[in-house]
Amino acid sequence: MFAAGVRSQLATTSAAVPLLTARHGGIVVNTAVSLPARYVGPLFYDVAKTAGNRMTWAMAHELHAHGVAVVGLAPGFLRTERVVAAFTRAGMAAALEGGAGPRESTAYVGRAVVALAADDGVMQHTGKVLEVGDLARCYGFTDADGTQHEPFRMPESAYRFPEL
Q1: Is residue 63 a contact partner of residue 70, using CB atoms and an 8 Å limit?
Q2: What is d(CA 135, CA 142) in angstroms, rounded to the nearest whole number?
Q3: pLDDT for 109-131, tens place per residue?
Q4: In this structure, are residues 63 and 13 in contact, taking their beta carbons and an 8 Å threshold?
Q5: 104: which strand partners?
Q6: Bridge partners of residue 28, in order along the sequence
Q7: In terms of DSSP H, where are the helices of 1-160?
Q8: 56-86 confidence digits (pLDDT tens)
Q9: What gap in Å lies between CA 104 and CA 95, rounded to an integer?
């Protein structure tokens, strides 16, 4: 989680920042997750996920003066080949067809990035974690199949660790 998530986003952004600050504008889009402000456990998952969100906030503070927006983009339950294969292996292929499983395509996420990059007022979003479903309604884009999915929000009851 740290190498593929936090570290790779830091390394990529570090390489891009000189280009963005030289042109006094642009946008950094980090992969993020909408989380409640509580422990979601286990420890390494919690730290990796919250670190990505915190990194978005901190980068936004450092790059704001340079006109560079930084947002965390939280996709919903993505229907990738790997996820479909996992559902199938687990004997849950019917859930895929019944709409209970992952629905969003990677194109939906891509369209959110395009919408943000084309928005002259993107700085209003800097430092925030944005959900793809909310952005679809805001900017009017759809998934590859023409639908707009609801933002993916886990209910509080889904987290197995109660408050202390």
Answers
A1: yes
A2: 10
A3: 999 999 999 999 999 999 999 99
A4: no
A5: 78
A6: 70
A7: 8-22, 43-63, 81-89, 93-98, 106-118, 132-139
A8: 999 999 999 999 999 999 998 888 888 888 8
A9: 14
Q: 């339950």: which residue's tokens? A: 77
SS3 7: helix
The Cα 161–Cα 164 span in angstroms is: 9
Position of tokens 């930084």? 70
Gyration radius from the chain CA atoms:
17
Helix axes 132-139, 106-118, angle to 10 degrees: 50
pTM (2 d.p.): 0.85
Query: What is the spatial distance between Cα 152 and Cα 146, in angstroms, rounded to a whole number?
Result: 18
Cα→Cα distances 109→10, 31, 57, 72, 161, Å? 20, 10, 20, 12, 29
Distances (CA, A) of 126 to 44, 147, 153: 26, 27, 21
Distance CA 73, CA 60 (A): 13
Structure tokens belonging to residue 98 = 């019944």
Q: How many Å apart are CA 36 and CA 38, to the nearest integer?
A: 5
Whether the Cβ atoms of residue 31 and residue 52 lie closer than 8 Å to each other: yes
